[in-house]
């Protein structure tokens, strides 16, 4: 059985504007996480905690990318049609193959977000262990082990989400409007990808939030007691800042994850009590597909069917519930972005590295600009030198031509004398007689011009 991939938005399409705000926040979050990852790669900052922060930055970058990173492309491809129920609304969809692309990105958003909260939990545990066993942590918790933890979390999350990519296949619909249709592959894969995966996700998120909460309380307790009191040294000051930074990361993550945890727990309760099979009018297969493809839309419909918080028609209540679901997504992306702000505020090394990075960038830009100016000046100087060389070569060539022409005339005269002595002498004599006359005429003309300038008499005329 096939289903069409579409969703409802309000008449003014404010929901699509929320998507636009989402990709703006996502690009900011991606940029900040790239900066954090690049700065923490410096050898002076490498430690087990910073390696975990690098893994967290990579996971947050991929989470933001899979959530809204391709939304500008989708915004240009959305096709919306006006429908009427009790009120007017828009039915929107993505044409093929963009619908398949959006499906896999939706799966990846869960995958990388799972990595994010696993690494955040590990960061809190690492700080608790460092407080309890400082000597053991210094010698046993190495950079290599921290890197193995990050890679292990990525592999774990990817492995449990791979079947979700193969739970449905997409094709172009038979309708004239190019609407995309998707088909479930099998009941077993579909059931794991929706029901069992959501239960596993609920267990993981709930356990991680509980561990983070306990870690935060314990670290805060040690911070306020005698653990960090005494003579304030530079090492103690850095340790105190590090602890405060971890506390802020854990608190922000808890605040951004609590709404999702509440939704997960509510979904598990409704499923375990058997309400899905009795109240779902579209069948469990359709709801399972929507949990994979569009989690926010599926949860909005579930809230419509199982709650009476909002009054009105089903479409109206669905659109109302859709807005807080998207706000939860935006809060998740803000949580991905907040780590950069926390690092910048609490770590003096991070601030110094960022300032140094921007100084290097400015110096590089200035160096490139000066190099371009020097190169342009050098090119213009070389062109002038080449032009001067060409002029010199040209003048020399003219001089050589004149000299060779003079030599040729002399040689011709000598040759004529050798062959025809008498006529040759007569001809050459005529040429010699003509030349002095011409030279005399030229000299007289030059003298006349000079005498006119000097105001003297015309000696040539007298002569």
UniProtKB/TrEMBL annotation:
GO terms for molecular function: G protein-coupled receptor activity. Residues 32-343 form the G-protein coupled receptors family 1 profile domain. It is found in: Membrane. This is G-protein coupled receptors family 1 profile domain-containing protein. Keywords: Membrane, Transmembrane, Transmembrane helix. The lineage of its organism: Eukaryota, Metazoa, Spiralia, Lophotrochozoa, Mollusca. InterPro entries: GPCR-Ligand_Int, GPCR_Rhodpsn, GPCR_Rhodpsn_7TM. The chain crosses the membrane at residues 20-40, 52-70, 103-125, 146-166, 195-221, 242-267, 327-346. Residues 439-463 are annotated as: Disordered. Gene3D superfamilies: Rhodopsin 7-helix transmembrane proteins. It comes from the Eukaryota. Coiled coil: none annotated. The keyword Lipid metabolism does not apply. The keyword Transmembrane applies. GO terms for cellular component: membrane.
């Amino acid at each position: 059985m096939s289903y069409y991939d579409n969703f409802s938005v309000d008449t003014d399409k404010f929901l699509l504007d929320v998507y636009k705000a989402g990709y703006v926040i996502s690009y900011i979050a991606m940029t900040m996480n790239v900066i954090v990852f690049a700065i923490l790669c410096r050898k002076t900052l490498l430690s087990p905690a910073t390696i975990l922060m690098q893994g967290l930055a990579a996971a947050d970058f991929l989470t933001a990318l899979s959530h809204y990173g391709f939304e500008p492309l989708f915004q240009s491809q959305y096709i919306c049609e006006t429908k009427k129920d009790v009120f007017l609304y828009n039915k929107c969809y993505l044409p093929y193959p963009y619908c398949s692309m959006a499906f896999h990105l939706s799966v990846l958003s869960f995958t990388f977000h799972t990595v994010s909260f696993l690494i955040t939990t590990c960061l809190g545990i690492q700080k608790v262990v460092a407080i309890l066993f400082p000597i053991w942590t210094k010698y046993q918790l190495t950079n290599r082990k921290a890197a193995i933890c990050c890679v292990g979390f990525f592999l774990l999350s990817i492995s449990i989400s791979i079947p979700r990519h193969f739970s449905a296949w997409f094709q172009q619909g038979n309708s004239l409007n190019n609407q995309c249709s998707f088909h479930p592959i099998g009941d077993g894969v579909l059931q794991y990808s929706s029901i069992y995966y959501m239960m596993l996700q609920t267990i993981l998120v709930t356990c991680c939030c509980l561990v983070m909460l306990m870690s935060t309380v314990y670290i805060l307790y040690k911070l306020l007691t005698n653990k960090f009191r005494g003579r304030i040294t530079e090492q103690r000051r850095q340790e105190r800042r590090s602890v405060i930074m971890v506390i802020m990361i854990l608190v922000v993550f808890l605040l951004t994850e609590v709404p999702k945890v509440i939704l997960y727990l509510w979904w598990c309760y409704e499923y375990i009590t058997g309400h899905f099979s009795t109240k779902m009018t579209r069948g469990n297969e359709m709801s399972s597909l929507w949990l994979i493809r569009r989690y926010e839309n599926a949860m909005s419909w579930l809230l419509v069917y199982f709650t009476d918080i909002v009054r009105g028609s089903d479409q109206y209540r669905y659109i109302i519930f859709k807005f807080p679901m998207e706000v939860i997504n935006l809060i998740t992306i803000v949580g991905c972005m907040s780590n950069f702000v926390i690092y910048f505020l609490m770590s003096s090394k991070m601030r110094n590295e960022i300032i140094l990075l921007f100084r290097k960038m400015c110096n590089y830009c200035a160096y490139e600009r000066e190099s371009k100016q020097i190169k342009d000046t050098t090119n213009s100087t070389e062109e002038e030198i080449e032009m001067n060389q060409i002029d010199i070569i040209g003048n020399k060539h003219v001089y050589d031509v004149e000299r060779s022409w003079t030599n040729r005339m002399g040689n011709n005269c000598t040759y004529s004398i050798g062959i025809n002595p008498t006529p040759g002498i007569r001809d050459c004599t005529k040429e010699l007689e003509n030349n002095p006359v011409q030279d005399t005429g030229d000299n007289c003309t030059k003298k006349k011009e000079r005498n006119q300038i000097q105001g003297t008499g015309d000696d040539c005329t007298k002569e």
